[in-house]
Design a protein that fits this description.
With about 425 residues, the chain is of the alpha/beta class. It contains 15 helices and 12 strands. Strand 4 (about 120-130), helix 4 (about 135-140) and strand 5 (about 145-150) form a beta-alpha-beta unit.
């Protein structure tokens, strides 16, 4: 299918590119502790997986976090800093981050009062299981944290979220959520969101109905990661796993739920991505708008350039591109004395991976719409087969699916353009 788009050629990553991204980074995330007061069966640091560092109930030293902040701040002074006024989000991750509140309090104070940060303003975010929320909410509200509370629906839906004695956490968490909503209703409305994990104890419909009816919120619904599964746990993982598209379309109220979920639904996300990448009317700068190109250069796959979105510091001092990939993908370290980032080494590592997949990318019919991060390919170190590769027939089916959705939902095209693409 010919969409009359410029030809894509693939290039290598450069040192200057990643230094530019670090100078304009949008988020720094600290794994403040690897301890957790729950033992959720499907946790990415739990029994299904083997691609993370051993959990030892450790706490990230404040000194290492401050050392990293100062290191990044030095890049803000360079001519690579293109921002007149840019938001930087400081995220706190775990384990359960609220188990290390002294760390969080110290870093918030440092960022707000002591860090050299020209042309920067700071926001704070934190995912939490909610068990300790009653003890920490005043501080979180005072500093306007964006909270993402993990809950899988009602008490039955939430059955995998248990403590270390096997006791359910639902009643405790819901009690704390109600306290927060009652004490700080405006904050709850504007700064609190929910994340649910889909599995064999719930469904998209049950999750949606619980949060909509109880809190008038639409949660994000995630699926279990299939990266780094222990071979001996493969069968149990498959029995626990559920697909969001299939679960949603099993519902008698599928259309109403999907429309209300909007960009949190897979169908809408897919068609939004299709419009954005294949319309031919999205321009990243004025040169793209004014001068047509017959050919464009890009990196293979959809892997983020290091530091383009975030930087994740683990409790063990490892630096990773983000918090969602295996902890073997190190791009630097923070020691007791210094920050160690070898830009040449990072470029060599990434270009080595890109070399493995470039031929597949060049043959893929969905080059413009690629969504595959290299670090979510299970056999990256060996055959490196892209699970999202599309031949021409598969691509035509993908295009038809998006076009059929737009034909069947003509009013949503305007909503997408006004609220997402333009707004």
């Amino acid at each position: 299918m010919n969409l009359n788009l410029p030809k894509i050629t693939y290039r290598d990553l450069t040192v200057e590119e990643i230094k530019l991204q670090l100078s304009n980074i949008q988020q720094i995330i600290f794994e403040v502790t690897d301890a957790c007061n729950l033992k959720c069966k499907y946790c990415t640091y739990g029994e299904f997986y083997d691609n993370y560092d051993h959990r030892e109930n450790s706490m990230l030293p404040v000194e290492k976090a401050i050392r990293l902040l100062n290191y990044v701040a030095d890049f803000w002074k360079s001519e690579r800093n293109k921002s007149r006024l840019q938001q930087l989000n400081v995220g706190f991750y775990g384990g359960e981050p609220l188990m290390n509140m002294p760390f969080i309090e110290t870093i918030v104070d440092y960022v707000q009062n002591k860090l050299y940060a020209p042309n920067r303003y700071f926001t704070f975010s934190l995912p939490t299981n909610g068990v300790l929320l009653d003890k920490c909410m005043d501080f979180l509200v005072k500093h306007q944290f964006f909270l993402l509370i993990s809950l899988d629906g009602d008490a039955d839906n939430d059955g995998y979220r248990v403590d270390h004695k096997g006791n359910g956490s639902f009643e405790r968490v819901v009690h704390n959520i109600e306290l927060l909503r009652e004490k700080y209703p405006d904050y709850f409305r504007n700064h609190v969101n929910f994340n649910a994990v889909l599995h064999n104890k719930n469904s998209v419909e049950s999750i949606y109905c619980f949060f909509k009816e109880r809190y008038d919120k639409i949660p994000s619904i995630g699926v279990l990661s299939d990266n780094g599964i222990k071979p001996e746990m493969q069968q149990e993982f498959l029995e626990t796993y559920r697909n969001t598209y299939e679960s949603l379309h099993e519902s008698a109220h599928c259309c109403e739920i999907e429309k209300d979920m909007f960009i949190k639904s897979g169908s809408y996300r897919s068609v939004i991505d299709f419009i954005y990448k294949y319309s031919g009317f999205v321009f990243k700068n004025y040169n793209d708008l004014l001068y047509e190109k017959d050919e464009i250069e890009k990196l293979p796959s959809c892997t983020c350039i290091p530091f383009s979105l975030r930087l994740f510091l683990t409790v063990n001092g490892k630096l990773l591109p983000c918090e969602t990939i295996g902890q073997q993908q190190v791009i630097g370290r923070v020691t007791d004395d210094e920050v160690l980032i070898d830009f040449e080494e990072i470029v060599g590592k990434y270009n080595g991976y890109f070399k493995k997949i470039t031929k597949q990318c060049a043959l893929c019919a969905n080059q413009y719409g690629c969504k595959q991060c290299l670090f979510n390919i299970n056999d990256l170190e060996t055959t490196c087969r892209c699970p999202l590769f599309m031949n021409e027939k598969e691509f035509e089916q993908y295009i038809n699916t998006q076009m059929d959705f737009l034909k069947n939902h003509p009013e949503d095209y305007y909503r997408i353009m006004e609220e997402v693409i333009v707004g």
